[in-house]
Amino acid sequence: MRRTEALQGVRMIKFLSLLSRYEAAEFSQLEAAELLGVGERTFRRWRQRYEEEGEAGLLDRRLGKASVKRVPVDRSEEVEALYRGRYAGFTAKHFHEHLVCMHGFKWGYTWTKTFLHGRGLLEKAPKRGAHRRKRERHRLGDWLQHRLAGA
Question: For a 10 Å CB count at each end of the chain, is N or C smaller?
């Protein structure tokens, strides 16, 4: 069971207990909604869906569906083939620029970079050095001795 499904179950149990207490007039809609961490309108919608559809009405309908922002499988295979063949050795940034310009790719650079790393086509860049190097602080006495010796 994935985390989202488990959290959905917990949310449903909390909603059902608060709904029964709301129906027993222990809470107002606003108080029940605040205890759930949702708005009053959301609580009303959930209550209506529960009355119409039962527990199935409380399930998150987005679960199990692919995101509309997801890159299609055939497009990701095309990207991999292009990198392996025509653009082998390009950096992620340069490759992404060519994808957008030459191949009408609409998804972001971060996806491209993550995808190439995930497929093992790119290696992580080496760590760069610190911009400002740390040095040990001088104590006041050392500074004073240095100034006196130089004067």
Answer: C
